[in-house]
Amino acid sequence: QEHQQTAPKLDWATDVRTLVQYNHGFAVMSTNSKADEGYPGGSVVGFAPDEDGRPLFIFSGMSAHTQDILADPRCSLTVAAKDFKGAADGRVNLMGSVELIKGDQDKAKAREIYLQKHPGAFWVDFGDFNWFRMSVEKVRFVGGFARAGAVTQDEYLAAKPDAVSEFGPKIAAHMNEDHMPATIAMVQGNVPGMEHDPENPITEAIITSVDSLGMYVKVTREKGIGFLPQSFKLRLPFPEVAKDRKDVKVRIMEMTNAA
User: Which residues form the DUF2470 domain (predicted)?
Assistant: First the structure.
């Protein structure tokens, strides 16, 4: 437990900013319903974060959520990690106000950013669609079990996405498909309490994410032990910060060889 509590991790603001940046570009927007007063409205919407992490949207004037935010701009956007599968995975709730983007230069910039995330969004030039930007005022974050809290507006706006996390999923997929024994060895050799136990071996170790400071790994043992269930997620930190793909490869090789 002590190792996991002190293992290097991205700070919360960076973690949130990274999740929003590298999400697949869809989230749940909750609005104050105009048609059904007193009830919340919910819509799955496409978005793309600008350089400050503020979500950009292109909405049809006929959509219910468009009518809602024109009447009351307050809303929230719930964004899940790109590979979200359950309660152990990250999600963030951004709260704030949405405003119509009016200037031609601002519209052109929003269009450029949005199409980078959604290259097939042919509707961006439809006449009845308009650009909107969300100003993030409050942030609630759940990074998995026993990792939850709030991030201030200033912390969120000042944070930058973790660079390694952009290509982390490809590294995780490669390791999970071709090198799981190496991941098991890294867990056994680098996390106290996870040493090889022939009576209760680790049967699976799936890397769920990779960032500049390390990896999260979902570990499955033959049976639960103590306070740990049969399957659980743990932090596997790198011995040094990784800045690019080459660094990540070197860190993984170092940890595998050391195990």
Answer: 170-255
CB 179 within 8 A of CB 134: no
CA 24, CA 54: separation in Å to the nearest integer?
15
HSE at residue 144, side-chain half, CA atoms within 13 A, is 19
Range of weakest confidence among 107-111, 139-143, 162-166: 139-143
How far apart CA 10 and CA 12 sit, in angstroms, is 6
DSSP for 6-74 reads HS----HHHHHHHHHHHS-SEEEEEEE-SSSTTSEEEEEEE-EE-TTS-EEEEEETTSHHHHHHHH--E
Give the relative orientation of helices 245-258 and 168-178 as an angle to the nearest 10 degrees.
Answer: 40
pLDDT of residue 50: 97
Domain boundaries, the chain: 2-159, 165-258
Superfamily of domain 2-159, CATH level 4: Electron Transport, Fmn-binding Protein; Chain A (2.30.110.10)
Alpha-carbon gap, residue 57 to 241, rounded angstroms: 35
Stated as kind and residue range, the H or E segment containing 135 is: strand 129-144
Fold of the domain spanning 165-258: Split barrel-like (3.20.180)
